């Protein structure tokens, strides 16, 4: 099943004992582009704001009723460790979250990227890892008042921090400028998520970028496979795509309310002359 992230964010979340709130954002594994957590906005139900929920805890999705169900009670969710909305999601926080709910840790089992070719553009193998600020010699991490460290100690601490940051927010990328071979081609408008029901416990991943190409004609957006992502320039708020600009501009328009079928996907990959992800032997079903 393919669904726009923006559309899914209009769905109501249901705990085992009643309505909980709505989806607000998605945290993505920078190494594989699998969706690891849904961010729930529960402020209509209890004071405390947003919660992180493992995608494997969601049991059913009803497109007609715009509802998605989670195998947890309201009380469990209310008492769960809350994310710091001003900081990256760290592995230690993920462990606390897994301990609270009894969830398995996804990083214990290696996962393949969602499409062949993703993660091959950099030495690190993961072009979407956000940067971590490294302070200069005369700066220390804020909040630690009784410890004075040298710049090299700070840098080592920051390097360790970066190794523990593997997730990024999809919402953060919306509005980023998209640059292709030949120049800027538009802005990131949305993403298309894939729910693979053939895999036990389900599996969510990012499949396509929805690009607003703008211009005087005000044409409908176009969609591009995520495997074409070459780099994310976080400081410039830009997404670098490994495709020709005119190839993207000449792609078939994709109205945001249009259902994406297998035929739609085949046409997309044929247009860009790319191998479809479902031909990848590592991919377990479409």
Report what the structure shows.
- The chain has 286 residues and is α+β, with helices and mostly antiparallel strands.
- It has a domain at 172-279: Roll (SH3 type barrels).
- The chain has seven helices and 14 strands.
- Strands 1, 9, 10, 11, 12, 13 and 14 form a seven-stranded mixed beta sheet that branches. Strands 2, 3, 4, 5, 6, 7 and 8 form a seven-stranded mixed beta sheet that branches.
- It is globular.
- It starts with a strand and ends in a 14-residue tail after the last helix.
Cα separation of the termini: 8 Å
User: What name is given to the CATH topology of the domain at 172-279?
Assistant: SH3 type barrels
**Total strands:** 14
CATH architecture of the domain at 172-279: Roll
Report the portion of residues in β strands.
25-35%
**Residues in helices, as a percent range:** 10-25%
What would you call the shape?
A: globular
Question: Structural class, judged by helices and strands?
Answer: alpha+beta
- Count of alpha/pi helices: 7
Mean pLDDT: 79
The first-level CATH class name of the domain at 172-279: Mainly Beta
What is the makeup of the main sheet? 7 strands, mixed
Stretches where pLDDT falls below 50 for ≥5 residues? Answer: 120-127, 131-150, 156-162
Topology order in helix (H) and strand (E) letters:
EHEEEEEEHHHEHEEEEEEHH
Radius of gyration: 20 Å
